[in-house]
Amino acid sequence: TAVATGAIGLCVATWQVGLLRAFAWTSRGMRSPARDSLLASLAPSHAYGRAFGLERAGDNLGAVVGPLLAAGLVVWVGIRPAMYFAFVPGALAAVTISIAAREARRHHSSLVPRKLRLELGAMRQAGVVRALLPIALFELGNVASTLLILRATQLLHNGATTLALATMLAILLYSGHNAFGAVVAYLGGHWLDRSSARVVFATGAGLYLLAYLGFSLNLHSPVALLVAFALAGSGIGLAETAESTLFARLLPDHLRGSGYGVLGATQAVGDLTSSAVVGVLY
After folding, report:
1. Could you tell me how far CA 81 lies from the centroid of its own chain?
2. pLDDT over 70 (residue 9)
3. Where are the beta strands (DSSP E) in 98-140?
4. Alpha-carbon distance 257 to 3, whole Å?
5. I need a surface site. Which of 69, 105, 135, 274 has the fewest CB within 10 A?
6. What is the distance in angstroms between the CA of the first residue and the CA of the last residue of the chain?
7. Is domain 43-77+114-281 annotated with CATH 3.40.630?
């Protein structure tokens, strides 16, 4: 992911950017299940919620700090050099994960190599199919954040704000979405360790539904749109943390890699389907 993102600064054609972005997201699809499986292996069972809440909080904070840092780098060194800098945090993340993986192997030194298989039968017996049904329904309604930014931009622009100012405000409001997501994911992790993952997930889905209701109205006020973004960020923060925690509780260690892979595939297919359908209808 780090190499592909940094290499975008070397591109001279649009197709090259598209190819590298596809490679980066493919790498992310491989990385995310491994990360979640590793985290579940390292965290004690009574702290799964806090572990995944902290991870989601860090991811959302990165989505707040990253664009602001990128904007500063673009002003300071230019667009292409700023893209090269994107390699640095990715490389540091790879080193950190390698250290964590070594620690996990030390704690599970008795593990023996297993054949590469998806273990669908074992996961079904563990209750994964039943858990995936509400998750799939939620992801089918989880449209890309860019569509929410587009909706906010149009609402602000129609409210007698210039297009440039409306776009800037919408992006700033989206930063609020990620900030609320970080805080609520962290708090939700503590809640998960004291409650059912299904209750936390349902609460997150309800907040997300309220956010969509807000975006469906003709809200031209930045404050009202901030509330809608905050509800969306809070909803996704609770839902994603609950999903990862639920799978950690359902699956034994040797099934978690396959389980988180299936979870990631369900999320990706749902997000792609919902975003494509809403994009066409919009």
Report:
1. 26
2. no
3. none
4. 24
5. 105
6. 31
7. no
